[in-house]
Specification:
Layout: H1 60-67, H2 72-75, H3 79-93, H4 112-115, H5 118-126, H6 129-135, E1 137-140, E2 143-147, H7 151-170, E3 185-187, H8 194-212, E4 223-232, E5 239-242, E6 248-255, E7 258-260, E8 263-268, E9 283-286, E10 292-297, E11 300-304, E12 307-320, H9 322-328, H10 339-368
This protein binds zinc ion (ZN).
Length: about 375
């Protein structure tokens, strides 16, 4: 039986139908918990338990990731029952010898001098607007680019992702996709890099976001979604125009050799104005360079042009702020960051100024005659 039978079908497939293998069933002696099919996409609302103490040959992080894929009925059961259930899934579907052991253990903890180029490290250590300005370019307002990752780190991470994907393919563990738009790539948080990526956000991205994106929650980032996307032949080719589900997005090119794949930016917009026209000054095309990062607001509309040859892999870290999201619900005017709100506000000010002028002139006219 393949895992496919256990995974929720993407569209319209009747419950339990699977691919003809029937539903994944528990041995009859065990209590049943209703529908036991795994979710195709992780339940991101659900906060999984920690399984550091679980004695098994699997990385405890796998249990936490897998918990997000459990059917709703399984989320309520005692932790031990969850562990048992997940152990069975893992044991059944992971062939001997094909288990996902980290290739490069050093990636799972953040080692600043091994990960980052010295200029980036110094800027973050100095932690002032001036130190950041020294390393950042701002080719268009709100889009910052800078040299960030060491080539050796990019190589290790690429290797690790490849290893992870081999394992995913070997076990047909098709439950991890980076987001709703990319088919190729992997969620880094799902294979144990969550702690490292959280540190990356808290200690290296937050200090910059605090200075350059305070109006979109840049000073209160508190969660992340980290993933890699792959473009090229037999992968995703391009990415349509969209906004990210983040307050601040870090997009770093890891390699390899490629041509094309430029990012195009088209201005920052709030929910209401997401489809409004682009102003000429908002247009920017950016070509990726391995090791180089782009940092922008999640609401900065963008897309990726076709990668015309080779293979391009980028790491993305969507940084979020729950405080900002909560506050946003009560706001109507986003002129501090939405290009269109800003234009509307200026237009209202222009009109009210014109009306005041008119009233004043009329008043003058009346008293003079
Ligand atoms: Zn707006």
């Amino acid at each position: 039986m393949s895992l496919d039978g256990a995974v929720e079908r993407r569209e319209g497939s009747p419950a339990g139908n699977g691919n003809g293998n029937g539903p994944v069933m528990a041995p009859p002696t065990r209590p049943t918990y209703g529908d036991r099919r795994l979710r195709l996409n992780p339940n991101t609302e659900h906060k999984p338990e920690r399984y550091d103490d679980v004695q098994s040959e699997f990385d405890p992080a796998i249990f936490s990731s897998l918990e997000r894929h459990l059917p709703p009925s399984m989320l309520e059961v005692p932790r031990d029952a969850k562990v048992q259930f997940m152990k069975e899934i893992l044991a059944r579907y992971l062939p001997e010898g094909e288990r996902n052991r980290p290739l490069h253990k050093e990636l799972y903890d953040l080692h600043p001098s091994a990960f980052f180029v010295p200029s980036f490290l110094k800027a973050v250590n100095d932690n002032t607007e001036e130190s950041f300005r020294k390393i950042l370019s701002e080719p268009s307002p709100g889009i910052y680019t800078f040299a960030m990752l060491q080539p050796s780190f990019c190589e290790l991470l690429l290797d690790e992702v490849e290893n992870f994907e081999k394992w995913v393919n070997a076990v047909k563990f098709k439950i991890m996709r980076p987001n709703t738009m990319n088919k190729y790539g992997a969620v880094l948080d799902d294979f144990g890099l969550e702690t490292m990526l959280n540190k990356l956000m808290e200690e290296f991205i937050s200090p910059i976001a605090r200075v350059f994106f305070p109006e979109v929650g840049g000073s209160t980032l508190d969660s992340h979604h980290g993933f890699v996307v792959e473009y090229g032949k037999d992968k995703d080719v391009e990415l349509g125009f969209h906004v990210d589900d983040s307050e601040v997005t870090l997009n770093v090119c890891l390699g390899k050799d490629f041509s094309g794949g430029e990012l195009f930016f088209r201005g920052v917009r709030c929910d209401k104005h997401v489809n409004t026209e682009t102003q000429p000054e908002e247009i920017l095309d950016y070509s990726h360079v391995p090791g180089q990062a782009v940092l922008h607001r999640g609401r900065h509309r963008h897309g990726a042009r076709p990668t015309t040859s080779g293979h391009r892999i980028n790491m993305l870290l969507w940084c979020r702020s729950s405080v900002f999201r909560e506050m946003k619900k009560y706001q109507k005017d986003f002129s501090s960051w939405c290009g269109e709100c800003q234009r509307e506000k200026k237009e209202r000010q222009r009109q009210s100024l014109a009306a005041t002028k008119m009233a004043f002139l009329k008043g003058c006219g009346g008293s003079n005659i």
